[in-house]
Amino acid sequence: MNWQDYENEALRAIAGCATAAELDEARVRYLGRKSDLAQALRGVRDRESGMLLNGIRERLEAAVGERREAIERAELERLYADRAFDVTLPGHASPRGRLHLLTQIRREIEDIFLGMGYEVYEGDEVTDTWHNFDALTTDHGHPSRSPSDTFYFSENVLLRTHTSPDQIRLMESRQPPIYAICPGRCYRRDTPDATHSPTFLQVESLVVDRGITLADLKGMVLHFFRQLFGPEREVRMRTSFFPFTEPSVEFDVTCFLCNGQGCAVCKHSGWIEMGGAGWVDPDVFRNVGYDPKTWSGFAFGLGIERIAMLRHGLPDLRLFWDNDLRVLAQF
Predict the structure, then answer these.
(1) Does the predicted TM-score (pTM) go above 0.85?
(2) Residue 294, burial from CB neighbour count under 10 angstroms (0-12, 13-18, 19+)
(3) What is the model's pLDDT at position 85?
(4) N or C: more exposed end of the chain, with fewer CB within 10 A?
């Protein structure tokens, strides 16, 4: 092949391109992987041929670059000529990002507890059966231990199903008094629907000290919900059962939409169920080396997604995880 003719032909084709698309087509034809030049370069066996072909390639690439700049410059000039631009007009503001709604509420919860003198303790999402079940006195036959309910890596290693393992690790690491909250992501084998998700955010509080009573628990919860939902909120306790607290209670707060009068959100009861709590079982204290005759305390937990759904009237928990900016940009 006469490579001088090849180069001249390619230069004429490149110089005749009027658009970026035409230039890309010429570049592929003369410099692409299937071009005669590229095929010849792959078969080079001597220095002279290599220098000749590489020189042609470099000159053609330079010609493509110069022509591309000329095309872009001509396009800009055409745009400026077709459309007058007033430099005194205000510019368009760039969209600003923001924290995810669940992150906003989590930080608000943390701020409320920090204001009460609590610390924020964050543990690992991967834990073992001792910290997730055994230390919390969960029976071996309890449904939550089943592989159909919990994500196991092995017989004794799993993704935590609640943030209670963090409370166990916290108590194992120090002596009372303890005033702390443990926020974080939890995992359960739930089928995603409007109110369930395999991954969710939870926050639990733990208090261990001398002379703690259920009245302290109710006072803490009342202050927390009034800070979160408004000063008019009232709280009531109902008896319940949890493996790691005795006695156990559940908390309801007066509906913040109807102020306790009854509406669709509170199912016309005037109350909204918020979370579970209770007196720390003495066996839990024994499992971490605390003397239950000396120390007493309470634990309280709730779901962060539930707070967000109730506060903002969102009907479906999956909206938090779909990353639909039409929803998230509202908060």
Answers:
(1) no
(2) exposed
(3) 64
(4) N
Query: 220-263, pLDDT tens digit by residue?
Result: 988 998 898 888 888 888 888 888 888 899 888 887 767 777 77
In three-state secondary structure terms, 154 is coil
- Give the up-direction half-sphere exposure of residue 208: CA atoms within 13 A in the CB hemisphere: 27
Distance CA 230, CA 251 (A): 16
CA angle, 202 then 189 then 172, to 5°? 45
Cα dist from 55 to 140, 156, 241, whole Å = 77, 66, 82
The residue to which tokens 């009237």 are assigned: 313
Using DSSP, state whether 95 is helix, strand or coil.
coil
* Residue 165 to residue 150: CA distance in whole angstroms: 14
**In which band, very low, low, confident or very high, does the pLDDT at 127 lie, cut at 50, 70 and 90?**
very high
Q: How far apart are CA 167 and CA 136, in angstroms?
A: 10
> Do 269 and 259 meet the contact criterion of CB atoms below 8 Å apart?
no
Please answer whether residues 311 and 229 qualify as being in contact, where contact means their C-beta atoms are separated by less than 8 angstroms: yes
Amino acid identity, position 318: R
Name the pLDDT band for 201 (thresholds 50, 70, 90): very high
- Sign for the CA dihedral angle at 69, 71, 73, 75 comes to negative
Which of 316, 277, 325 is CA-nearest to residue 100? 325
Strands 245-254, 157-159: pairing is: unpaired
Q: For the chain, what percentages of helix, strand and coil (3-state, to nearest 5) are there?
A: 45, 20, 35
